[in-house]
Amino acid sequence: MTKLWGGRFQKTPEEWVDDFGASIEFDQQLAEEDLKGSLAHAQMLGKTGVLTEQETKLIISGLQTLQGKAKRGELAFSSKYEDIHLNLEKHLIDEIGPLGGKLHTGRSRNDQVATDMHLYLNKHVEDIISKTEALQKVLVTKAEEHVYTILPGYTHLQRAQPISFAHHLLAYFWMLERDKERLTESLKRIQVSPLGAGALAGTTFPLDRTYTAELLGFQSIYENSLDAVSDRDFILEFLNNSSLLMMHLSRFCEELILWCSQEFQFIELDDTYATGSSMMPQKKNPDMAELIRGKTGRVYGNLFSLLTVMKGLPLAYNKDLQEDKEGMFDTVKTVEGSLEIFAGMINTMKVNKDAMGQAVREDFSNATELADYLAKKGMPFREAHEVTGKLVFLCIQKGCYLKDLQLEEYVNASSLFEEDLYEAIDPFEAVAKRLSEGGTGFEMVKIALEKAKHRLEDV
Ligand code: ARG
């Protein structure tokens, strides 16, 4: 079979060489973008007089027919034609005859494939932004229900100080807000058109690059043709932003997994987001949370594999660049799926307020309160810390908590203690009093909720 580029060749490659070099198996996902790019290119060739009006009309209607067939899944693709670009060109020629071969005037697969990927990411980054926002909404709704639900906050995974559960949920809201900001900011580098850069050096045809850029909804065009065809920063940036987003989801997954263990019992995941064991009948495993945590690894992997592909590439296009696609597709699928599953998981989980409340009542996360109590009565904080530490040690020896010690025992430790200490060490009060900006005090959390909702309305 003659290749679309076969003129210079005496022999055709072995079939397995064709198969090894072909990308159609995965780049057929770019069919919609490739046709869109071709339509803009054809329209521009007509406008600039490179194609006659009649030729332009025929090519455009041929491409539209292919669009319809692609939507209905009626286009067959073959590794004989290597990639999506040559497969579609072959289909166009089959559809309208040799005139189809004029579409590639002034264009190379190098600017074509880069254009496709800019279009593809533009669509999916916008989708990921809106899915991130949907998850933020779920977090805000859950947080609103749990302003007064208290649980231990941890450092070193040791109980540290009591906090509002809403405050904990909102921490993730702000992480996602930064993710959204980064993704939104990256759009200006995604919405740049490489089309018209040709293979690497531009072309001798009078192309109107700004016109095709406008038709495709791009904000600007690449200033340099070599950069246009060999830049993959926009994909790396996407993979990097996705890695950060997945890292946030993964940390949250880790908490959900801990919280639904028998040891914590802070939450129960809905049956629809958990699975059983084939052997142990009692099991209810948080598989979805574990999978999102696990899939974070592959997204990091995709970032590193493309960084590695790029590091030694001379200008301009090199076939190595074909390796940019699978990691990008895989990341889009992973991030979109993870965000959707995550929102459902949070939305349907049951929060065990009693277990959370009990955890803060039966521990020492109110010890800071006791030290602060003494400090407020004039004792230097360092000394207050020491006195409180000794009282905690006394409790551990006696097998009780701070609330269980007698006033007499307190007074023995420091004459500054009075009856009101019991109120001061109540964990609910401890949360309520943390009214510094950005703190967990209930009134602060309510303000934070308003701010979060305001952010969501802004978009
Ligand atoms: N399938 C190729 C890729 O994904 C398209 C560009 C091919 N260009 C070339 N000069 N061989 O990178």
CATH class of the largest domain: Mainly Alpha
Q: What radius of gyration results from the CA coordinates?
A: 31 Å
Mean pLDDT: 96
CATH superfamily of the largest domain: Fumarase/aspartase (Central domain)
Question: What is the CATH architecture term of the largest domain?
Answer: Up-down Bundle
Structural class: mainly alpha
Distance between the termini: 54 Å
The name CATH uses for the topology of the largest domain is: Fumarase C, Chain A, domain 2
List unreliable stretches of 5+ residues: none
Report strand %.
under 5%
What is the helix/strand order?
HHHHHHEEHEHEHHEHHEHHHHHHH
* Number of helices, where a helix is a run of at least 4 consecutive DSSP H or I residues: 19
Task: Categorize the overall geometry.
Answer: elongated
Total domain modules:
3
How many β-strands, per DSSP? 6
Strand order of the largest sheet: 1-2
Give the biggest beta sheet.
2 strands, antiparallel
Q: Which cofactor or ligand species appear?
A: arginine
Q: Give the % helix.
A: 55-70%
